[in-house]
Each structure stands twice: as C-alpha cells, then as structure tokens.
Amino acid sequence: MAFRSKVRSLTLQGNRLFSSSILSPDSKTPLSSKEKSRAALSLLRFEKNPERILDICRAAALNPESHLDRVAYSKAVSKLKESHYYEGIRGFIKDSLTRPDFKSQRFVSHFIVLYGQAGLVKDAINLFDEMPNMGVPNNVKAMNSWFYESGSANSAHSILAEMERKSIKPNAETFSIVIAGFYKEEKFSDVEKMMHLMKKYGMRPGISIYNVKIQSLCKLKKSSEAKALLDEILSKGMKPNCVSYGHLIYGFCREGKLDVAKSLFKEMVDKKLKPEADCYFTLVYYLCQGRDFEAALGICKECMAKGWVPNITTMKSLVDGLVSIEKIDDAKEIIGIVKEKFTRNADKWIEIEEGLPK
C-alpha cells in the first residue's frame, strides 16, 4: 500500500510538473484549473504544431464542464483540422471519453459536436450509436446539440436521414438550427426543403421557426423579405412576439431605414408587446447614427424608465447630439441619470457636463 501511495504521489507530481512546463514554464507554483484553461487558450491561438497542440490540451486537463475549456477544445480541433491531422482529433476525443466523469449525455454530445466540427461525420454518427452502450441515452436532444455548435449546415441532410433511419423524430428545435444554418450559407432552396420536410413530419411552423427565418434574413440585409414574413404571420392569424419585432427593428436599422424601424417599434407597442432592452439599445444607437436625436431621446427616456441604460458610447453620442441641436437641458438630464446609474464613470460624466454650453 505504501508503495502504491508513493507511485500515485510521484505520478501526480509528474503531471503537475508536465502541466507547468507546458503551460507556464516560468511559474514556480501550481496553476489553478482556470489558470490552466487561460494559458492553454493563449498558447493554442498561435501554436501550429499538431503534437504540441495535443500536449497543451493534455497539460490543461480540459473539462467540457467549463466554458473556457469548451472553447479550448473547439480551438484545438479547428487547428488540428487545418493541419489535416484527423487521427490526432480521433485520438484526442477517444482519450477524453475514457474519463469516467465524462460519461454523460451533455459531455458525449459535446464530443459528437467536435467530430462534426472536424468534418468527421461518420465518427460523430458512430459515437452517437455507441451512447447506449456507454450508459448514456441518445435522442433528439443529443443530435440537436451537434447541429447547434457545428456552425455549418453542410451535413444537415445526411444527419436528418440518419435520424430517420434510427427512428429519431426531429423537433422544432432541430429545424430551427438547420434553417438558420442554411440561411447563413445562403442556401435558400434548402430552407424551403426543410419547410416541406416539417410538413412531412406533421409539424406546423410556429412563431419560433418564423423568428429564425426573420432573424436570418435581417442578418443578410434582406429586411424587406423578413417584413413580408411578418405580414404572412399576421395573415395566418398567428401572433408575432417582441422577438419578431426586435429582429426586424435591428435589420431595418442596420440598413439605414430608420422610419420603418420606428414604425415597427410603434406597431409593437400598440400591440401591447413589451420591447426587450436590446431593442431599445439598438434603436437609440442607430437613431443617433442617423442624427435623429429627438427620436433617440424619446426612446432613451422610455428605456431608462424601465431601469435600462444603453452603453456609455451610445449615451455620449446622444448627449453630443442633443447639444448640437441646442437641447442642453435634455443633455444635462441624461447625464444626471447616467451618473446615478454608473457611478464608476461619474468623474468622466462630470467632466462632460462641465464642458456643456452654459
């Protein structure tokens, strides 16, 4: 027993020394888990040698429980893919799966995602098939997580076919993810194929699907097409929500069509829908960019009455704009509210206030 204890102690000591020498060669004290993760991410940004990339990951003892470590996993796989080191990716994931604490649906789903990210579709499907043997359920939730983080719709058709073969019925979330992916890649005919496929499964597109379509079109600066979808929703007797309007307002603001954005905002409020904070922030920012400072002031006051204040850059832009149209008292009022809300920047705002025309 004493011998085993000694061996375990030496092994742990060796692991710590290995971690320190790779992640922080100048450090004389052991790194915490978070410090290891940050050091690994920093090194992975510039490292090109595939074996060295794997050494960095091993030294950091990455754990998908941590957001930082999930980012590091993804970064490592992307780097290894660039080097076409697919065997290294397979070995890296298989080594991770040997850890007993990683045998959960959430963690295994993450490794399926990594296979998908690397373009190793067959490996991803094989791991999905192996999940029951590992004591982990494989279902539509596990398959959706793959779609979520892979960032590409290239394999969507084959994955959906695989789901059908395994009698796993895709749900609305599955289609939302896939449709967003096809829009991102501007594969509009594939979007329509997904809409038809939904009908095949007896699914009626709900507001969540329409919101994905609206958001995707707005991101592509096709806000007029997105607005047509809103009209379609209304014609079908469906009720758009604040998310629907928020996406449209952002889209039209980005395209400089501020009158349309303001009209949509009024329509939303008239329908008794409550705008979210980001919707207010977006409007105030773009109205200032468009030099419509009076409208920006009105929206900003509504926003602040709810306890939400746009960031300092937007607020400075609004204050400067109000001064430029000689609304000094309004500018002072805005500064007073911001000083109270963001006390750490109070000195800066006092300086701005003192510089206002008397």
UniProtKB/TrEMBL annotation:
Keywords: Repeat. Pfam families: PPR, PPR_1, PPR_3. InterPro entries: PPR_rpt, TPR-like_helical_dom_sf. PPR repeats lie at residues 171-205, 206-240, 241-275. It comes from the Eukaryota. Coiled coil: none annotated. Belongs to the PPR family. P subfamily. This is Pentatricopeptide repeat-containing protein.
